[in-house]
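Case study.
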Amino acid sequence: MRLSHQILSITLILAFFISPPAPADENGAALYAENCAVCHGNQGKGGVGVPLALPDFQYAVSDQFLERTIRRGRPGRVMPAFKNLSETQVRAIVRHIRSWAPGKPIRYPTIKVSGDPLKGRILYKKNCAACHGKNAKGGKGTGVTFSRPRDLPIIAPALNNQGFLYAASDQMIKATLMNGREGTPMVSFLKQGLREQDINDIVSFIRSFEKRAPIHAYREPGHDKLTVAYESPYGMKETIAALKRAIIGENFRIIRIQTLDSGLVKKAQEDHNKIIIYFCNFQLLNTALAVDPRVGLFLPCRITVVKRHGKVMVYALNPKHLSYLFNNDELNKLCDNMSKVYISIIEEATL
Amino acid sequence: MKKFLPFLVLIFSLSVSNPSQADNLLMARTNLNFPEAMLKLQDSIRNHGYTVSRVQRVDIGLTHSGYVTDKYRVVFFGKADLVTRLSNDYPKLIPYLPFKIAIFAEGDDTLIIAANPLQLTDKTYPELKPVMKKVEKDMLEIFQTMRNNEE
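After joint prediction, the assembly is written out as follows.
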């Protein structure tokens, strides 16, 4: 009797933690507004993310594709994995996305496509690589926009991405190749003269990326140190002067020097032992914004000089540390480079 | 019951998942145009007890480089005592102070973005969690206010 009480208690506790009670009808519109609208637009017209309301997209993708995409995202290609959302919430978001297109969503049979990946590789190179990249790594750019002129509604997806391969079934990839996607540069390859078997071969080639080492990956929080910190052997004034020289030497322009608490306290109360140097390189700025407009979190470039207990310290944020936030392989490269630039400037000024 | 305790602890720890990348980057879209959104953002920051210390343009020269907008700013904000305390006791956080929110136009809409302040405490300064949790709560409310245009 006692044992059955214990089992009952444990079952109840487990039930509480494993399946937290979910509302019967999650508000898909609210969940979409909170989690998706910022990138995909309030009405799914796209922006940082792909236009989900595009009719041909809606007709061509299954609910399973959308659900799996939300759950696992696209490693290294901006779309994050929404691990915090429950199954019910994901389904509610998908229902909301579906409200933009009439009709029943397509359901693909689970039958695997049988083809020759070696033949598919040759056909891929000839027909797909121009848009989807040499190793199916996707079109150049991340698909994100910063109110810049756009000539494409989407960037060709990375077909070798493990998130894409998890979400897209063989039959969905095949249907896309057969029919194309109206409103995007993706054409029907049947109309382009390929046979159904050729298309099967291409699908098999794309599927073969599943067995290879992933090219794209999520960066984890804490993969690199939070801050770049150096002690300066010089006094406050000399360190600031040396930093200014080093910053200009790296082709940046000094845009402002102020105290850390400037604007927070009265002018007379500002702490002149904590000084920020802001600087910028417009070419680098434009490159970064084109890769990912969210990069404003790093801007403007900044180094802080602090005098405390007789020591002068120099601090900068570490873009490499922050890069994981954006899930953007292209931005990762820029961040890694910018970390090196910060270190180079500070070392030049303090060594 | 004791022998089940480690098992229950394990289940509990599994159920409390780590914040994902999606949680660490706060983002919101508002269909207000850029000037209106900027005003609303600054109001909301002030309503939460913070001082807007500076609004920094980061778009100088963008239009000359082919962009169709120059509406991109970073709004710095903080509380003087909090910034002083954090910068004195946790100097490695200095580059992240004052807090900031990037705001930029995308077509007729405006987007705002910030790093979740909680991610600054992970592993490095776990004792700061309660302080950053409060800042996170305020920022989440600010972002929610921006999403709700009727307010």
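Observations recorded in class. Helices of chain B lie at 5-15, 21-24, 34-47, 80-89, 129-147. Residues 21-146 of chain B form a domain with the TATA-Binding Protein fold (CATH 3.30.310.70). We will return to this complex in the next lecture.
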